[in-house]
Automatic annotation (TrEMBL):
<protein>
    <submittedName>
        <fullName>Leucine-rich repeat-containing protein kinase family protein</fullName>
        <ecNumber>2.7.-.-</ecNumber>
    </submittedName>
</protein>
<dbReference type="GO" id="GO:0016301">
    <property type="term" value="F:kinase activity"/>
</dbReference>
<dbReference type="InterPro" id="IPR017441">
    <property type="entry name" value="Protein_kinase_ATP_BS"/>
</dbReference>
<dbReference type="Pfam" id="PF07714">
    <property type="entry name" value="PK_Tyr_Ser-Thr"/>
</dbReference>
<dbReference type="InterPro" id="IPR011009">
    <property type="entry name" value="Kinase-like_dom_sf"/>
</dbReference>
<dbReference type="Pfam" id="PF13855">
    <property type="entry name" value="LRR_8"/>
</dbReference>
<dbReference type="InterPro" id="IPR001611">
    <property type="entry name" value="Leu-rich_rpt"/>
</dbReference>
<keyword id="KW-0433">Leucine-rich repeat</keyword>
<dbReference type="InterPro" id="IPR003591">
    <property type="entry name" value="Leu-rich_rpt_typical-subtyp"/>
</dbReference>
<keyword id="KW-0547">Nucleotide-binding</keyword>
<feature type="binding site">
    <location>
        <position position="243"/>
    </location>
    <ligand>
        <name>ATP</name>
    </ligand>
</feature>
<keyword id="KW-0067">ATP-binding</keyword>
<keyword id="KW-0808">Transferase</keyword>
<dbReference type="InterPro" id="IPR050216">
    <property type="entry name" value="LRR_domain-containing"/>
</dbReference>
<keyword id="KW-0418">Kinase</keyword>
<dbReference type="InterPro" id="IPR000719">
    <property type="entry name" value="Prot_kinase_dom"/>
</dbReference>
<feature type="domain" description="Protein kinase">
    <location>
        <begin position="207"/>
        <end position="449"/>
    </location>
</feature>
Length: 449
């Protein structure tokens, strides 16, 4: 992060990325002094409500973030910026998105947590659009023209007022990560504060919170321990992990929907085990088994460059056999979830943990959707969308098995990837069939040892 004082003193010449958090109410004109090099401009967490009409003078600007400001209208000047392709205006008070505000070369549009009731037909002309985040608005429909957004891969529609899931959406050839919980057409939540049959309902009085283990869009995870001896006896452990939801709409939707999807999914060997739920009037949460020592994240989140695809640490290596084992466990897990009419919505390596034996643990239901109210054909399409996500995962892992000479196995995995990612959704295999194929590949490898 840089400072306004540095900018005004001319100390930032030549930089490509600028981030200013200075309670700004006006766009600093000195930013134009950086026009020859500036590519990324982050003005989030200020008090801005407008942008200058000569913003296109920033001819190299590719990415603009202005979240947590005071914009009420998405600025029309954005559409005139010659290279702008990533736009983020999360958590403003935007109620209007003019047609002119959308550059035709947009790849990434984040408008989460605003007051938008409608989008312009121009959306259908954004043929490069890959990532679209609209959770937490007031949308009642989407433009039919968006059926032409054939490169769209990630869509967040949760916590809106959509009357139906658009039929064209479930036909997009590259759609891979979709979340839509918290809309009138989707699952009707039972009282999130009520008891459920699957796991006990506890309160924070039953728990002692310890160190913070991590934080995501929907909540904070702590290490904890049971103070209630009855829960120690019921769960067979004193040490636990506790996820406390933040209680507000997130980039993926409402915490109550995440809680519902997680509890509806139930148990599976490759899902992080849920021991109890916290459903106090002032706090929702999950109590989970602690992840055993030796587990680590399979991947890292997408970068600005990769947009929708995961990244991996330098030095990452897998054998082809490792990839088969990871994919098999994931296919079995997703088959279980879809049998319970739950889609995950965020099938990414960064939401998975593995150990040295390639045992898989999968979690984070923040983008999950309950499919119970969808038709059979819609549920099949939702499964096909997540099948593509499995294909993307295998596709992402294969380059890290470069030294493995098992050419036949590599070809089989490549063929499976192509099947999972083919444009026609109805031609993609189901998770049960994928799991059977991967089980055969795994058994064949075991026989060769």
């Amino acid at each position: 992060m840089q400072t306004l004082a540095q900018l005004k003193a001319g100390q930032l010449q030549g930089i490509t990325r600028l981030q200013l958090v200075e309670n700004l109410t006006e766009f600093p004109r000195e930013i134009f002094d950086l026009a020859d090099t500036l590519e990324i401009l982050d003005l989030s967490n200020n008090q801005l409500s407008s942008l200058p009409e000569d913003l296109p003078r920033l001819t190299h600007l590719k990415i603009l973030f202005a979240s947590n400001n005071r914009f009420e209208v998405l600025p029309e000047v954005l559409g005139q910026c010659p290279k702008l392709e990533m736009i983020g205006f999360k958590a403003n008070q935007i109620h209007s998105v003019p047609e002119a505000s959308l550059p035709l070369h947009t790849r990434w549009l984040i408008l989460t947590d605003n007051q938008i009731t409608a989008l312009p037909e121009r959306m259908g002309q954004l043929h490069r659009l890959q990532k679209l985040a609209l959770a937490g608005n007031r949308l009642t429909s989407l433009p039919a023209s968006m059926a032409q957004c054939h490169n769209l891969e990630l869509v967040r529609l949760s916590a809106n007022a959509l009357a139906a899931l658009p039929s064209w959406l479930l036909k997009l050839p590259k759609l891979t990560w979709l979340a839509f919980a918290g809309n009138p057409f989707s699952h009707t939540l039972v009282d999130p504060h009520a008891d459920v049959a699957s796991v006990p309902n506890v309160t924070l009085a039953d728990i002692e919170l310890g160190e913070k283990l991590g934080e995501g869009a929907s909540g904070i995870i702590y290490q904890g321990r049971w103070l209630n001896p009855a829960m120690v006896a019921a769960t067979g452990t004193e040490q636990i992990a506790v996820k406390l939801f933040k209680g507000e709409v997130t980039s993926d939707g409402y915490p109550a929907d995440e809680l519902d999807c997680c509890l509806t999914t139930g148990e599976h060997p490759n899902l992080i085990k849920v021991l109890a739920h916290i459903s106090q009037q002032d706090q929702l949460g999950l109590v989970m088994a602690l992840i055993p020592q030796g587990f680590y994240n399979l991947g890292l989140p997408p970068s600005l460059e990769t947009c929708t695809r995961d990244t991996f640490k330098a030095g990452t290596e897998f054998s082809l056999k490792d990839i088969v084992k990871i994919a098999l466990q994931l296919a079995e897990t997703l088959a279980h979830m879809h049998a319970q009419h739950i889609s995950h919505g965020d099938v990414y390596a960064h939401n998975m943990m593995i150990n040295r034996q390639m045992a898989l643990l999968f979690g984070d239901f923040g983008a999950a959707s309950n499919l119970a109210k969808l038709s059979t054909s819609e549920r099949s399409a939702m499964q096909a969308i997540e099948v593509r996500a499995l294909g993307c995962l295998i596709d992402d892992l294969l380059p890290f098995a470069g030294a493995d000479r098992a050419d036949a196995l590599r070809a089989q995995l490549r063929q499976l990837t192509e099947l999972c990612m083919q444009p026609e959704l109805s031609c993609r295999p189901a998770f049960r069939d994928i799991a059977k194929l991967l089980a055969r590949l795994w058994q064949a490898q075991a026989c060769e040892v």
